[in-house]
Amino acid sequence: MFFVFFHKMADFTLELEALRVENARLKEKLKQHLLVEDMLLPSSSNLPRAVIGMNREGGENACPAPPWIAGLSHSLTAAQIQRYSRQLLLPSFGVKAQENLCKGSVLIVGAGGLGSPVALYLAACGVGCIGIMDPDRVELHNLHRQVIHNEASVGETKVSSASRTCLAINSSVKVVEYPFGLDARNALDIMAQYDVVVDASDNVATRYLVSDACVVANKPLVSGAALGMEGQLTVYNYLKFQFCKALKFIQLQGPCYRCLFPTPSPQAACQRCSDAGVLGVVPGIVGTFQALEVIKVLTKVGEPLSARMLILDALSSRIHTVKLRGKNTQCVACGELPQITHITLPNFDYEKFAASPMSDGTPPREQVVGEDQSITCTDYNKLVRGHKSHVLVDVREKHQYDIASLPDSLNIPYAKLPQQLDTIRAAAQKHKHEGDEDMSVYVICRRGNDSQRAVQDLRSAGFNLVYDITGGLLSWAQDVDSTFPAL
Ligand SMILES: [Zn+2]
């Protein structure tokens, strides 16, 4: 009896504690909610609470709009006037431009280094609907440049993290989340719902797809790219009206991506932030310029960067703009006889065309040498633990080797291998004990591709016992030592 009573008391105590925690959580939530309302409508303001939620006309739960609103010649609410006052004060901007922003919609393809500032500024300035598309989840190594995410977002989908940040800045905008990648089958349907498209992607295949789909869907495309210490941006497929000498307006269509780059260059497929690296602030600058171009296109304020390209050299802090070739009448996307249409585009294989995947993930490992010339990281680790004499050659570039490397390894970058054969022979001789057969040489790199080529080259140069360490240091970090940085 006593034990039953004791257990019931314990249950009540636990339940009471849980209710206290829930009560505290709800109080905190209410406090935050009231704080946001206070921020929207400071107590010193004369603005009525009716405008919360940007409801000018009054919805189901809205209070009547203030009397002075009725006499205005524009559609902005009192809260919108207050929030956007600093850009409304600009003589070249004004209420008409703000109305266009509030009514505008933008699809951002990529919520990474470029997409972050684009989404942040478009939400802040009041673009009515922002679609954010990205198939990836936030990783720790994203945070140095993808400033829309934070440490608490690691592991979460990028679109969910970006959406939450946008709404925390401006809860009056609508954010649509697309937690998947753009592909040839979904591109046209999704783009049809937006006024402007932003290419904030990180790979060549997506770049061609976004441009082609914008041509077919007749949408202006604000395209940016950043790599290393350099960046560039332009506006593709932009239609402008110009008053000509014949005293009439004519339509001028700017070039598309294919007008300038009919086929992908072999180098383009290799240029990825995950390989080449990027200084975080560089995509930040380019993405901020992209947000500016979106605002100009939506508001018709200023001269969008059509048929011109802005080029950023972060090392010298130089920005210059070059004139681009105009629209190519032979272009297969936007030319006089287009081959890419709403019928053919969904079946076009962009990954095959660009010879690169539509993601910034690790590219598939090449298979150059056979199993008899390779060793897994796990087996190589056993060999090291067994103190078997050998030579370990790391063929990464020196700046990568300097970040982190395995003990007792010899750094000979792959490009310098032919000149360093004697160095390897000397190292093998040094480790060789009396009576030993030829010394084994193991080769490692970042992902296991250059190391395979190095094994082939070394065997051709007369080294008989040379082995590739399969999967390189990324596999080492995954299979052997989780503390080793998986760069
Ligand atoms: Zn074109």
UniProtKB/TrEMBL annotation:
<dbReference type="InterPro" id="IPR036873">
    <property type="entry name" value="Rhodanese-like_dom_sf"/>
</dbReference>
<keyword id="KW-0547">Nucleotide-binding</keyword>
<dbReference type="GO" id="GO:0005524">
    <property type="term" value="F:ATP binding"/>
</dbReference>
<dbReference type="GO" id="GO:0046872">
    <property type="term" value="F:metal ion binding"/>
</dbReference>
<feature type="binding site">
    <location>
        <position position="256"/>
    </location>
    <ligand>
        <name>Zn(2+)</name>
    </ligand>
</feature>
<protein>
    <recommendedName>
        <fullName>Adenylyltransferase and sulfurtransferase MOCS3</fullName>
        <ecNumber>2.7.7.80</ecNumber>
        <ecNumber>2.8.1.11</ecNumber>
    </recommendedName>
</protein>
<dbReference type="InterPro" id="IPR035985">
    <property type="entry name" value="Ubiquitin-activating_enz"/>
</dbReference>
<feature type="binding site">
    <location>
        <begin position="202"/>
        <end position="203"/>
    </location>
    <ligand>
        <name>ATP</name>
    </ligand>
</feature>
<keyword id="KW-0067">ATP-binding</keyword>
<comment type="pathway">
    <text>tRNA modification; 5-methoxycarbonylmethyl-2-thiouridine-tRNA biosynthesis.</text>
</comment>
<dbReference type="InterPro" id="IPR000594">
    <property type="entry name" value="ThiF_NAD_FAD-bd"/>
</dbReference>
<dbReference type="InterPro" id="IPR001763">
    <property type="entry name" value="Rhodanese-like_dom"/>
</dbReference>
<dbReference type="GO" id="GO:0006777">
    <property type="term" value="P:Mo-molybdopterin cofactor biosynthetic process"/>
</dbReference>
<dbReference type="GO" id="GO:0061605">
    <property type="term" value="F:molybdopterin-synthase adenylyltransferase activity"/>
</dbReference>
<keyword id="KW-0819">tRNA processing</keyword>
<dbReference type="GO" id="GO:0002143">
    <property type="term" value="P:tRNA wobble position uridine thiolation"/>
</dbReference>
<dbReference type="GO" id="GO:0016779">
    <property type="term" value="F:nucleotidyltransferase activity"/>
</dbReference>
<dbReference type="InterPro" id="IPR028885">
    <property type="entry name" value="MOCS3/Uba4"/>
</dbReference>
<feature type="active site" description="Glycyl thioester intermediate; for adenylyltransferase activity">
    <location>
        <position position="273"/>
    </location>
</feature>
<feature type="binding site">
    <location>
        <position position="259"/>
    </location>
    <ligand>
        <name>Zn(2+)</name>
    </ligand>
</feature>
<feature type="binding site">
    <location>
        <position position="334"/>
    </location>
    <ligand>
        <name>Zn(2+)</name>
    </ligand>
</feature>
<feature type="binding site">
    <location>
        <position position="158"/>
    </location>
    <ligand>
        <name>ATP</name>
    </ligand>
</feature>
<keyword id="KW-0175">Coiled coil</keyword>
<feature type="active site" description="Cysteine persulfide intermediate; for sulfurtransferase activity">
    <location>
        <position position="445"/>
    </location>
</feature>
<feature type="binding site">
    <location>
        <position position="134"/>
    </location>
    <ligand>
        <name>ATP</name>
    </ligand>
</feature>
<feature type="domain" description="Rhodanese">
    <location>
        <begin position="386"/>
        <end position="485"/>
    </location>
</feature>
<keyword id="KW-0511">Multifunctional enzyme</keyword>
<keyword id="KW-0862">Zinc</keyword>
<dbReference type="GO" id="GO:0005737">
    <property type="term" value="C:cytoplasm"/>
</dbReference>
<dbReference type="GO" id="GO:0061604">
    <property type="term" value="F:molybdopterin-synthase sulfurtransferase activity"/>
</dbReference>
<comment type="pathway">
    <text>Cofactor biosynthesis; molybdopterin biosynthesis.</text>
</comment>
<feature type="coiled-coil region">
    <location>
        <begin position="9"/>
        <end position="36"/>
    </location>
</feature>
<comment type="function">
    <text>Plays a central role in 2-thiolation of mcm(5)S(2)U at tRNA wobble positions of cytosolic tRNA(Lys), tRNA(Glu) and tRNA(Gln). Also essential during biosynthesis of the molybdenum cofactor. Acts by mediating the C-terminal thiocarboxylation of sulfur carriers URM1 and MOCS2A. Its N-terminus first activates URM1 and MOCS2A as acyl-adenylates (-COAMP), then the persulfide sulfur on the catalytic cysteine is transferred to URM1 and MOCS2A to form thiocarboxylation (-COSH) of their C-terminus.</text>
</comment>
<dbReference type="Pfam" id="PF00581">
    <property type="entry name" value="Rhodanese"/>
</dbReference>
<dbReference type="GO" id="GO:0042292">
    <property type="term" value="F:URM1 activating enzyme activity"/>
</dbReference>
<dbReference type="Pfam" id="PF00899">
    <property type="entry name" value="ThiF"/>
</dbReference>
<feature type="binding site">
    <location>
        <position position="113"/>
    </location>
    <ligand>
        <name>ATP</name>
    </ligand>
</feature>
<comment type="similarity">
    <text>In the N-terminal section; belongs to the HesA/MoeB/ThiF family. UBA4 subfamily.</text>
</comment>
<keyword id="KW-0963">Cytoplasm</keyword>
<dbReference type="GO" id="GO:0005829">
    <property type="term" value="C:cytosol"/>
</dbReference>
<dbReference type="GO" id="GO:0004792">
    <property type="term" value="F:thiosulfate-cyanide sulfurtransferase activity"/>
</dbReference>
<keyword id="KW-0501">Molybdenum cofactor biosynthesis</keyword>
